[in-house]
Amino acid sequence: MGLFSFFTKEKKETLDKGLEKTKESVFSKIARVVAGKSKVDDEVLDNLEEVLVTSDVGVETTLRIIDRIEKRVARDKYVGTDELNRILKEEIAALLEENNTMDGDDFSLPESSEPYVIMVVGVNGVGKTTTIGKLAYQFQKAGKKVYLGAADTFRAAAVEQLVIWGERVGCPVIKQKMGSDPASVAFDTLSSAKANGADVVIIDTAGRLHNKVNLMNELSKIKQVMQKVIPNAPHEVLLVLDGSTGQNAFEQARQFTKATDVTSLAITKLDGTAKGGVVIGISDQFKIPVKYIGVGEGIDHLQIFRKREFVDSLFKS
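The structure assignment produced for this chain is given below.
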């Protein structure tokens, strides 16, 4: 278990507040669906399907949820509309539990004699560097020694932002001049981290998707060079997605999973949008663990994604 593996009241309140816009949007739409209806019938289910799709749950996941509710209605013979929220909550929770994702502890790491390496990918503007900074803060808070690598060498702003986060959190940032080989930065970062007994290394990468082949080659090269220092690096490839972009986040996930072997997801900016349903759809469709969610601007507002707490918060009255 991690050092902070309990889900505190403060974290629950932050999660509730972060999902407020999504909750208000979904509930108001469902209220319109059941208006004047006493039982869940085909019309209610058709309208509910539209609610879920327009809440960015995604078409495939929506159809799966509706199918589950249809079977439940057929089995129970009569389901009142007053029960719809409870049933929807139960079926979404069950769907997420069936996926191959496990709820994690709070920012714990596997025991190892070498640094745990996380390579972070994602398009520019999704909150990638901010997520790295917040991750670094949480690991530092858990007593881990953190090194950051500024391998997005094509944007001065990215390097500068990472340096600011390093100063804020209190961890070293390894960088080179603009336009340097990103793999060289990664090599230097891992070498320095290993020599200085770091527990975790987080590598920022460039967020370009206009040429998938180039992106694939660049990420592959970074991996190969890192493995010269730490054979199994990276231990994790974390894709950061902006939850407020809705269906565009699905497309980014498709593109990046084709370009590299993504092993975990972070979905950011959920507090500023009514599109929180995207977490349900992405978790279901890609079968890649949603590991972190961003539910506020504060340095401690990056949370471990826990399916049950997420669904409880989304349906909290």
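Interim note for the steering committee: The first helix runs from residue 9 to 18. The CA atoms of residues 152 and 206 lie 4 Å apart.
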